[in-house]
Write a structure and sequence with these properties.
By secondary structure, this protein is an alpha+beta fold. It is built from 15 helices and 23 strands. The structure holds adenosine monophosphate (AMP) and glycine (GLY).
């Protein structure tokens, strides 16, 4: 079977690694891939170029396309592939609006009866300001469209909220993505990621995970794509997570099916565990990065079989087992990320890091590239070290011990990944 994976991050490297273990996979292509791809085929096409990707997949007789990130999904890669007669894992462009438009997600949640923060919509500054006051001033400002992690502002105070509204609505810093803004009630609580495989009819949850979105220890600094993650998250025990899945995934699947766009793929609910129960902050329509890395490390079943079962509407008949051992991923980033940072810095020590605990540690590369036989950094999140352990504390120690073997100038990582889980008391 020929499988083409779209994207170049740690998540995509993890997908390649897991898919390559499948008894069905024979041949892998990566568009565009990163420095880790070695003997796989690198396809020089960007994830935004959905038509060209679909055409390429047909010409190269690809059997299955697996987009890693949201961009190609929101831009309609599934629809483009359908037209080209190629199977593609994920929701179509309509269903992908769950992530592509925060307003669409709110509407669907409203119809489906999913608990979410109350909100108002605004398209100009005066209206937005009024909405903020109506919600009592303690709000979160969200741009409607995709903004590569820059579309959500959690302001300290009213002045900060007004600043964000000014940026999105008057100065149009996000372009079209910020023309419509949601002003949302600000909630308090622990955040947990719940991901489920979906086959249009049913959602089968994976174990829970917790991301670390802020750049610095103690959840300080700016928001990032994610600086580390671990699974499971003890704040949401397995039996409860299964119940939450029934509350926040099933009804959404029902609504989308009724609308003629059954959701197939991975549905990710960003939850906040509040006093009034779990509330959905956002949906993503794909694996989270870095949540994907610990989740796939724990997955013992054949990922390709699961992907095919999602697409063929038979998730109830596929085996899906996860290793009970926790896994934890720490991201190593270039100094300055998520702002400006240096590129083309030499990386070393990756083998030593993996050898530090053979079979228990895996380095998933993200912003890397090969040049003249040397591995160089090429992005903000450069790589992630993922480790398994008999308990969370051991997974954590193993990951950090491996990380110390990696040499990358001008880099940083958070030292507190997993601590919330370790300190959590029932
Ligand atoms: P999102 O992209 O919607 O997940 O938002 C990014 C981050 O903003 C989340 O991980 C939360 O930390 C925070 N956030 C989003 N919505 C809210 C809310 N209603 N109340 C408090 N924090 C929020
Ligand atoms: N880790 C959060 C995300 O992938 O959006």
């Amino acid at each position: 079977m020929r499988i083409m994976i779209i994207g170049s991050g740690g998540r995509e490297h993890a997908l390649v690694w897991k898919i390559a273990q499948s008894r069905l996979a024979v041949d892998l292509l990566l568009a565009p891939g990163n420095g880790a791809v070695g003997h796989w085929v690198n396809v020089p096409l960007e994830p935004t170029d959905t038509e060209a990707l679909a055409r390429y997949a047909r010409e190269e007789k690809v059997d299955l396309v697996v987009p890693g990130g949201e961009t190609p999904l929101v831009l309609g890669i599934v629809d483009a592939c359908r037209e080209a007669g190629v199977a593609c894992f994920g929701p179509d462009a309509y269903a992908a609006q769950l992530e592509g438009s925060k307003l669409f997600a709110k509407e669907v949640m409203g119809e489906a009866g999913v608990p979410t923060a109350s909100y108002r919509v605004a398209r100009d500054y005066a209206e937005a300001r009024e909405s903020m006051e109506a919600l009592g001033g303690r709000v979160v400002i969200k741009a409607d469209g995709l903004a590569a992690g820059k579309g959500v502002v959690v302001p300290e105070d009213r002045a900060g909220a007004l600043q964000a509204l000014d940026a999105f609505l008057r100065r149009k810093t996000l372009g079209g993505a910020g023309e419509t803004v949601l002003i949302e009630e600000r909630l308090e609580g622990e955040e947990v990621s719940l991901l489920a495989f979906c086959d249009g009819e049913r959602a089968v949850p994976m174990p829970t995970a917790q991301d670390h979105k802020r750049a610095l220890d103690g959840d300080r600094g700016p928001n990032t794509g994610g600086m580390g993650a671990y699974s499971p998250a003890p704040m949401l025990p397995e039996a409860e997570a299964a119940k939450v899945c029934r509350q926040v995934m099933d009804p959404v699947l029902r609504v989308l099916k009724q609308r003629g766009h059954p959701f197939k793929g991975v549905l990710y609910a960003g939850l906040m565990l509040t006093d009034r129960g779990p509330v959905v902050l956002e949906y993503n329509v794909r694996f989270g990065d870095p949540e994907c890395q610990p989740l796939l490390m724990r997955l013992e079943s054949d990922l390709v079989e699961i992907l095919l079962a999602c697409m063929e509407g038979r998730l109830d008949r596929v085996s899906m087992h996860f290793n009970p051992w926790p896994a934890l991923c720490v991201v190593m980033a270039a100094k300055g990320y998520p702002g400006d940072y240096a590129k083309d810095l030499p990386l070393a020590g990756l083998e030593e890091a993996e050898w530090s605990a053979i079979g228990l540690v895996k380095i998933f590369q993200a912003g890397t590239r090969m040049a003249g036989g040397r591995l160089l950094s090429s992005g903000g999140r450069v790589l992630g070290v993922t480790a398994m352990g008999a308990d969370l504390s051991m997974a954590r120690e193993t990951a950090y011990a491996a990380l110390k073997k990696i040499r990358l100038p001008q880099s940083f990582y958070r030292r507190d990944i997993g601590l919330k889980g370790l300190n959590f008391k029932k």
